[in-house]
Amino acid sequence: MHRLFLGASSAALALAAALPATAQSTASEPSSVQDVIVTAQRREESAQKVGLALTVISGQDLEDRNIRTVNDLENSVPNLEVDSQLGGGQPQFRLRGVGLTDYAANNTSTVGIYVDEVAYPYGVMTQGQLFDIARVEVLRGPQGTLYGRNTTGGAVSVITNAPTNHVTAGLNASYGSYDAAKLEGFVSGPISETLSARLAVSGESGGAWQYNRDTGEALGDKDTKALRFRARWSPSAQTDIDLNLHYSRDKSDGRGLRLVIAPFTASGGSVYPVDTDPRITGWGITPYFAQLIGASPNAKPFRNNTGKGVSLRLNHDLGWAALTAIASYETFDRNEFNDWDATSSNEAGTFFFNDIKTTSQEVRLASPTGGRAQWLAGVYHANESVDGGFYSDFSQARNLGFWMSTTYGQKVQTTGVFGNVDYHLTDRLTLVGGLRYEDETRDLNDFKTQILAPTPSVRATTSKSQHMGQWTGKLGLEYSLGDDILTYANVSRGVKSGGFTTYNSGLPDQLEPFKFEELIAYETGVKSTLFDGRLQLNAAAFYYDYRDQQLQGILYTQTGRVGRMINVPKSHIEGGELELRWRPLDGLTVTQSVGYKYGTYDDFFFVNSTATEAARDPVTGQYNTIVYSDRAGERLPFPRWDYKGSVAYGWNLGGWMLDAETNYNFRSDKYSTSANSIIEGFWLVNANLTLSPSHGAYSVGLYVNNLTNDYSEESRNRFISASTGSPNPPRTWGVRLSYRY
């Protein structure tokens, strides 16, 4: 477990070691599917009583299925994809085909991400959050009448473990392929009659599964540390105050890309064939670029990201209503070097540097439970700043031969007022209505893109401003066919704010802001609990009317192609999900889900990449003819099908428990607009075997990820000349040890 260090963990580990390993009495396992209590609608209720498409993953499920980062959530949630574009450390979330793809850090996620009800508006901020988790709730469809921010795609809400009123502690340790090691620990308990606290720590090291095709040097080692401290003070029976302090540091290697599609001829004449081994990658860095970014002259792709934050939450029972107030401050410092041509030729080296700061305040009033009307009203305000940019090394790229810099500052101020009412018209029929108004001002200040060397010149400078004031809302009906069957139908409108393209071309068309997007969603579904609680079967169908969809498009010049965020005037998406959780036998749990979605552009006149590439001059490499065409009717670029599930069974072996679990995920192919090619579908199968005493405090286990060793890519791109894919890891395995007191 080399290089594994857990900052601030010594207190937790020492206390866990000092506690006696007393036997734990375990209750007999329930024969029915356990009812999960969620707070998706800002009140505690059964997930089966929520008239929304909702998937819940418990903390135990996260552990059993080896879900270690937010990217891994896609393996357990239908119609969810989480990809880090170009192998970077910024995850991109997509729910039901609605999601933003953007490698810059200044545009907010289309899917709302929350940790303990605090919004993380920028995807890069979400790394390092999945440890010591109670559950993850994923809501599909527009959100805004209950949550702090307005989103079109949905919401992913991470709820961490709260402090306990009794002393408890635990350790999880694992070691596996490529010297990958992970260690987590926590300690929790009362400090006084009114105060309790919880400290959780996590760290990873090793795991370098890629290697340089030229030198054999390894790439992919993890080096992460994270800490979370929660304290809960209950000065009275009516009041709780919850403090959350957290820190994360990621100094891991970056992800290497792989050459795909066709041989790549570098500007110096070197010919690189298509990589046949999924583990092969390559990189290079020039002395000038290394000095510019403050890195070693032989640096490989790396990250040096730090996140810090604090939040304070007040819950107070006023009698006639429950008052909730949340204040938070979050910072994220991003420093990340990527090699996008995946060779030793320096044609597309990129270094991101960003300083992100967000402050938010939310105040809500909610009615007491049990009445005919359940209502909620709130106000949300946030201030955000994103400063920084990126450096680019095009020093050996054909028709370029220089180093560039793009810098900017961005300020965002958002205020939202929202309310929601569930009114029981009868004992079985409920009318649901919600409304929100959001006002946002977004300013891009001092944007500058320039050539740094060999001949310095400024390509573009600008400042832009954008304002949005929009009403959104929801109207729905819920009808109970009995205590165990709920049907619902909703229509909702969501918006997601616009923004700015902060790439490094400087073309006038590229610098114009893109508009906010609007989505009107029609959804109907059913939730059922059958066969004495042994089976939960949920289904949903939806149709999305999508206006001004935000899309990462491209612009062609005579000498090359550049990216730009654009708006598609009109498109639509339709599909559905089927989810099953079943306990056919005591000890056997089966989960299955199928997601389907299909969408097309309805109104879209844009550049035709295939025709433009075909017209490229084979000698000079220039684009002398740029072809535009009517793209209406073309399929939207996301997978059509996904199938996900798990099977777990536990045996009682005379004083010992043996638990076997396998989980699997199939994702069908999708079209990559940035690479103008198809990313093939793939299967991912994981397996786990755990042995523990029936009345003991520890367990030992084996795990295998990607059991079938299938090759898959999460994203693909064609940057300058090289066509590259971002591969997922091959088969890995390991052992793990868990201890609880």
List keywords for this structure.
5 helices; Maltoporin, Chain A; about 750 residues; about 60% strand; mainly beta; globular
> How many beta-strand elements?
45
Instruction: Determine the mean pLDDT.
Output: 89
Class from secondary-structure proportions? mainly beta
CATH class: Mainly Beta
CATH superfamily: TonB-dependent receptor, beta-barrel domain
By DSSP (H or I, 4+ residues per run), the number of helices equals: 5
For the largest beta-sheet, the strand count, sense and barrel status come to: 22 strands, antiparallel, barrel
Looking at CATH, which topology would you report?
Maltoporin, Chain A
Shape: globular
Number of domains: 1
Instruction: Give me the Rg, rounded.
Output: 26 Å
Percentage of β-strand residues: over 45%
Distance between the termini: 24 Å
Helical fraction equals under 10%
CATH architecture: Beta Barrel
Q: Return residue spans where pLDDT drops below 50 for at least 5 consecutive residues.
A: 1-28
